[in-house]
């Protein structure tokens, strides 16, 4: 069992918020590109081992009737050298996104880094192929370093600046255990003295096999969010302590993730992990995992305006079950997330504030069932998913959002809300999805068509007296995602 982050070689939401590329500012990325190109001429390594090129195109839309389509192109290039010294190799991963402008009548394109990295790997001759000591540097964007294991429960713990996010990780992998330590940092503005300083987020953890089929993993983190910008607590340090743990039972051959771009779109490695073809055999494989993630953000302003600060705890947990029998896969995923976990990158709710004493936050709960079958002759894998989600919601004081009395804020994603028109508790959201994969030797394509029924959806409109109020919106939406990748 491989660790899902930097242990693996290698959308919308967080991926499509990557920082733009400019030659003068991001010279390091040019070096990564040159290194990857140079590795393709390695004279003693076979071509398929020395260089891998994976262009991917994407188009999708959450609402085909009213929403705009999202398009992107991703280029992944992995280059590996032969041994530089006994047991020492170098790997370069170039991961770039080409994004069109979202402004009307603007045909410009933005080139953005997607956590490219350089890695030195050392393996003594007596160790097995999967073992080794590696040091990885992410010079421009370090979203591959995050707290947690499976998306969307995993949290990236962003820092708040506009400069490149530099990261590094040291990882030791042995046959039955692994350990790592990593850090990412960014220049941020201190809103008290208007000077910039470097903020850090540090991670450490590891895991091991208690038995051949049972693995336990733990990790912890501390994030520095600089100082609170709110006037009544200006200058107070804001940060977070967090921890995550996972217990996994696995039997048989590996089982890949379900075909679900919406679930994994925040993961920078989605372009590799989701489009990697599944390996089937005639046996039975099973994987059961339970994950817990806890977070405590400190230095948030008290909403009563007293000038005091509070901490804001957050909790999430998930169960992930997978079964593969011959060429059929079954999935079950259940999870819960507190509002404070969904809003952890803000941080707080509203940003840099803790909850007030008279708020009644309620967590998000979700259940998802999925199945697909791979046909050997046509290489097609159709699938079906269905699920239900009760969104997180809170009833804040009227002054918090200027909503007036009898309002409920439904939190759909970080900093994305619905304001219920009747002020009642959030109701469940039902969804279904049809998926289709086509996997050939050097080609993979994924198509998803999904339907959501969300009776919490509202829109703001003017009433007869000219006041803007939330009005009920159509609860039904249809969307799609298409990803096509070639591998050279």
Question: What attributes characterize this protein structure?
Answer:
488 residues, mainly beta, Porin, 18-stranded antiparallel beta barrel, 3-stranded antiparallel beta sheet, 24 strands, 7% helix, 50% strand
From the N-terminal CA to the C-terminal CA, the straight-line distance is 26 Å
Helical amount: under 10%
CATH topology: Porin
> The biggest beta sheet, please?
18 strands, antiparallel, barrel
Radius of gyration: 23 Å
Low-pLDDT sequence parts: 8-15, 20-32, 34-48
Tell me the strand percentage band.
Answer: over 45%
Oligomer: single chain
Under CATH, the homologous superfamily reads Porin
Count of helices? 6
Description:
- There is one protein chain.
- The protein has helices spanning 27-39, 47-50, 261-264, 270-273, 339-342, 398-401, and strands at 51-61, 70-80, 88-100, 109-113, 117-122, 132-138, 166-173, 177-189, 196-211, 214-227, 237-251, 284-301, 309-325, 328-337, 364-373, 380-390, 392-394, 408-413, 416-420, 429-440, 443-454, 458-462, 468-472, 476-486.
- By secondary structure, the chain is mainly beta.
- It has a single domain (15-486), classed as Beta Barrel (Porin), CATH 2.40.160.10.
- The protein has an 18-stranded antiparallel barrel. It has a 3-stranded antiparallel sheet with strand order 17-18-19, with no helix packed on it.
- The longest helix has 13 residues, at 27-39.
């Amino acid at each position: 069992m491989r660790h899902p982050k930097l242990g693996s070689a290698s959308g919308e939401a967080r991926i499509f918020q990557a920082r733009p590329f400019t030659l003068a500012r991001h010279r390091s990325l040019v070096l990564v590109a040159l290194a990857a190109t140079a590795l393709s001429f390695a004279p003693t390594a076979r071509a398929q081992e020395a260089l891998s090129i994976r262009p991917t195109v994407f188009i999708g839309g959450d609402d085909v009737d009213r929403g705009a389509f999202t398009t992107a192109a991703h280029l992944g290039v992995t280059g590996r050298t032969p041994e530089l010294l006994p047991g020492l190799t170098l790997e370069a991963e170039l991961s770039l996104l080409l994004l069109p402008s979202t402004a009307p009548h603007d045909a410009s394109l933005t080139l953005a880094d997607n956590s490219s990295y350089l890695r030195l790997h050392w393996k003594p001759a007596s160790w097995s192929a999967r073992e080794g000591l590696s040091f990885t540097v992410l010079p421009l964007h370090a979203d591959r370093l995050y707290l947690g294991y499976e998306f969307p429960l995993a949290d990236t713990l962003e820092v708040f600046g506009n400069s490149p996010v530099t990261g590094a990780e040291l990882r030791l992998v042995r046959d039955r255990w692994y350990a790592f330590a990593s850090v990412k940092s960014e220049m941020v503005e201190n809103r008290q003295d208007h000077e910039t300083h470097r903020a850090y987020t540090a991670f450490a953890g590891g895991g091991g096999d208690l038995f051949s089929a049972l693995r336990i993993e733990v990790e912890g983190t501390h994030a520095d969010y600089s100082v609170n910008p709110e006037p009544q607590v200006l200058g107070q340090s804001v940060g977070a302590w967090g921890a995550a743990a996972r217990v996994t039972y696995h039997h048989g051959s590996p089982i890949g993730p379900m075909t679900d771009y919406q679930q994994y779109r925040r993961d920078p490695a989605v372009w590799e992990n989701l489009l990697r073809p599944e390996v089937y055999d005639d046996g039975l494989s099973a994987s059961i995992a339970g994950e817990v993630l806890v977070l405590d953000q400190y230095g948030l302003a008290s909403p009563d305006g007293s000038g005091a600060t509070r901490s804001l705890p957050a909790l999430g947990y998930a169960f992930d079950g997978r079964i593969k029998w011959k060429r059929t896969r079954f999935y079950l995923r259940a999870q819960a997330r507190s509002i404070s976990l969904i809003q952890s990158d803000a941080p707080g709710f509203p940003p840099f504030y803790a909850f007030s004493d008279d708020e009644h936050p309620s967590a998000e709960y979700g259940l998802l069932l999925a199945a697909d079958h791979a046909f050997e002759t046509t290489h097609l894998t159709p699938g079906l998913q269905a699920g239900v989600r009760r969104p997180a919601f809170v009833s804040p004081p009227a002054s918090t959002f200027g909503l007036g009395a009898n309002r409920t804020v439904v939190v759909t994603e970080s900093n994305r809300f619905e304001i219920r028109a009747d002020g009642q508790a959030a109701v469940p959201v039902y969804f279904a999805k049809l998926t289709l994969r086509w996997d050939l030797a050097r080609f993979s394509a994924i198509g998803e068509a999904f339907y959501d029924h969300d009776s919490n959806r509202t829109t703001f409109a003017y009433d007869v007296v000219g006041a803007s109020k939330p009005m009920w919106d159509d609860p039904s939406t249809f969307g799609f995602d298409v990803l096509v990748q070639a591998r050279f």
